[in-house]
Backbone:
């Protein structure tokens, strides 16, 4: 992270303290997935519904631990990373760069530094404004939105909001919160690539709406009346289906290798330091492994990484390095120009295509359908969207914390944008991650349609 953030370490010490124990997620914590329940008081789970320790509050901090040492097999399964090169003789002054200080110049966001250098961002002013506006309108306790171009890694929106806490910065880069059901993207990829399933593969299960227990993994002809395909189970975010499939068809090494291929446990190269999204797949417990596959425990995620993952699925399995600076000039001389950088391949092209199709069920009849009806559907038209929701609720010292995720790419067949939205609600509900991301998608679609009309 930038020097500005580290320079405020003392100020933020109290928030950092709230994150103690995050590293013990996989071994010590079981989260409750609310299956995308409607917001309201019922989401503050009572003592009988809780299992163990709840999630920490997001803080202004970036994990500083080194990436985990990968095995040779894991390296072969996924990409290794190196930061994108910078032009010789010039280093981006990350500590001085702040998109919030930029002005719109000829349709681009440009910040003028103290030495006269002009930093031009990749950010789209309209999308950035849309992301900021929706979080301010709902006064979210903690919110973050990231949008980028899947094919190039150009960041189109990088926005955050912490109501009443303007000192909290770079929430888009924090990986302290749980990945929740967003991790089902990883599990689905592993089932497609390593277990030979396809979108129409079917399983019959019972229970598992809010949690998964050992008995949910056993066949029970009398109770196993809920039959669904992989595509339908993904769209419905079926915990028990993913848990049972993983238990039967995957090994911890399979799931770990797929997570590593999606760059969990590695630091993403970026202008500012990015917290490492962790995925520690349990190896010594059958039920712990099944729960991790469903997204209950064992994984954390940053909003930036969430957008990169969604973009990779839409980009045929190729992960692009996110970049927020387009170029830097001073007195007419170009000091820096960014280029698209490939981080590696997370999935074979055919698996990525299958997974992209499966992800459309989230909006087409799944957990996000109601959020893309009415006015939103009129704005987006017949455009198909690949997406995933994720929700986890818990309580800590009497305070409810609910993590609400949404990641998406559009159009599903040839994505031009990927977006991730995260809201952390407290006792009082504000909104969901899907509402933040939807606002950006609608703004993007309106501008895309306007540009198409103008060209006719």
Residues:
């Amino acid at each position: 992270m930038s020097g500005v953030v580290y320079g405020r370490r003392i100020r933020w010490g109290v928030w950092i303290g709230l994150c103690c124990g995050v590293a013990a997620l996989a071994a010590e914590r079981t989260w409750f997935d609310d299956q995308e329940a409607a917001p309201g008081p019922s989401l503050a789970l009572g003592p009988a519904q809780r299992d163990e320790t709840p999630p920490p509050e997001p803080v202004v901090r970036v994990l500083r631990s080194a990436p985990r040492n990968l095995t040779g097999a894991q390296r072969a399964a996924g990409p290794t990373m190196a930061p994108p090169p910078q032009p010789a003789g010039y280093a981006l002054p990350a500590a001085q760069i702040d998109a919030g200080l930029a002005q719109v110049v000829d349709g681009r966001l440009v910040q003028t530094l103290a030495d006269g250098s002009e930093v031009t961002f990749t950010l789209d002013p309209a999308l950035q404004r849309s992301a900021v506006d929706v979080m301010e309108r709902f006064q979210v306790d903690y919110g973050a939105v990231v949008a980028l171009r899947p094919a190039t890694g150009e960041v189109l929106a990088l926005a955050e909001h912490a109501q009443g806490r303007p000192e909290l910065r770079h929430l888009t880069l924090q990986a302290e919160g749980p990945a929740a059901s967003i991790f089902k993207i990883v599990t689905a990829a592993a089932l497609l690539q390593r277990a030979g399933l396809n979108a129409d593969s079917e399983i019959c299960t019972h229970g598992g709406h809010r949690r998964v227990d050992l008995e949910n993994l056993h066949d029970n002809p009398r109770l196993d009346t809920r039959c669904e395909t992989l595509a339908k189970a993904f769209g419905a975010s079926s915990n028990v289906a993913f848990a049972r499939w993983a238990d039967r068809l995957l090994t911890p090494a399979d799931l770990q290798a797929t997570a590593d291929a999606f760059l969990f446990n590695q630091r993403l190269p970026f202008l500012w330091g990015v917290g490492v999204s962790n995925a520690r797949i349990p190896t010594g417990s059958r039920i712990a492994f099944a729960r991790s596959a469903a997204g209950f425990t064992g994984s954390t995620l940053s909003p930036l990484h969430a957008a990169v993952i969604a973009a990779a699925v839409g980009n045929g399995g190729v992960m692009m390095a996110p970049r927020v600076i387009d170029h830097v000039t001073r007195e007419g001389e170009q000091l820096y120009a960014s280029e698209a950088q490939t981080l590696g391949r997370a999935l074979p092209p055919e698996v990525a295509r299958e997974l992209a199709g499966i992800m459309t069920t989230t909006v087409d009849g799944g957990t996000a359908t109601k959020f893309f009806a009415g006015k939103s559907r009129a704005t987006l038209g017949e455009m198909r969207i690949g997406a995933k929701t994720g929700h986890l609720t818990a309580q800590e010292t009497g305070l409810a914390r609910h993590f609400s995720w949404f990641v998406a790419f559009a159009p599903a067949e040839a994505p031009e944008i990927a977006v991730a939205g995260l809201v952390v609600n407290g006792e009082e509900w504000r909104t969901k991650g899907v509402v933040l991301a939807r606002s950006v998608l609608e703004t993007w679609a309106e501008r895309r349609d306007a540009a198409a009309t103008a060209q006719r």
Notes: The longest strand covers residues 399-410.
